[in-house]
Amino acid sequence: MRKLTAIFLLLLAGTARSQDHVAAPAATDSAVQFYFRTLGETWPIHNGRVFYGYPGHVEHAFFPSNGWQKGSVHYDGVWYNDISLMYDAYMDEVIILHPSSTPIRLVSDRVSEFHYLGLSFVRLEFDNNSSMRTGFYEKLTEGPVTIFVKRTKKIEENIVDLTLEKKFVTAYQFYALKDGVFHSIQKQKSLLEIMKDKRQAVVHHLKQQGIKFRKEKEKAILEMARIYNQSPN
Q1: Which of these three, 164, 179, 194, is where a domain ends?
Q2: Is the domain of 24 the same as that of 123?
Q3: Checking phi first, is residue 180 left (phi over 0); if not, alpha (psi -120 to 50) or beta?
Q4: Domain span at residue 233?
């Protein structure tokens, strides 16, 4: 077992050096697979708190749906692939399904990124002086201007038929990363200010495609970033 552990530690070191990969690498290394098969239900990723859900609430706390999805999680420097998971956008936590069919809440600061349904989430950390809070952000596109969105769920309380109703509602906040600085995107004007060196090309494209920022905010932001990143200097 000591020999097996030593092999795994060497593999772990190699995996840690590749943390900056956007897409989760396939777990094809036979030694890694053998290690995981040996551990069975005792993988480090399975050491979490039981998730009990939100009984009595209307709608759900997950993004984009409340069903289990197959995905990959980078946990403590190791990729775990083909994991059944959900993203709890209310608590900002990753929920995985233990082999015993028990939902488990992962320790968030041990998760660096996760992927499912073609979506990529990364954990960003900020100090107390930042307007952004530490947590998981979906990376929508990457380039000279990289777009992130914070997907959150909040609980809205209303009195319905003399009964207190607790309902999950969705809220999104977009951010643009350029030259190492994050910018909050509230309006089209705020994003165009970041893209002022290519403003004309970006505005022309939106008009040509008939995309209205107020009506299709996420689509407009992605198109603006795509044109900016692809346009020559």
Answers
A1: 179
A2: yes
A3: left
A4: 186-233
Which residue, of 139, 158, 179, is where some domain finishes?
Answer: 179
Query: For residue range 122-158, what is the model confidence (pLDDT) as tens digits?
Result: 999 999 888 899 999 999 999 999 999 999 999 999 9
CB 63 within 8 A of CB 85: no
Neighbours of 223 (CB within 10 A): 18
Residues 222 and 114 in one domain: no
Lookup: tokens for 4: 């097996």
User: What is the rounded CA–CA span in Å between residue 55 and residue 95?
Assistant: 16
What is the pTM for the complete model shown? 0.81
Domains identified in the chain, total number: 2
Distance between start and end Cα atoms, the chain: 56
* pLDDT tens for each residue of 62-87: 999 999 999 999 999 999 999 999 99
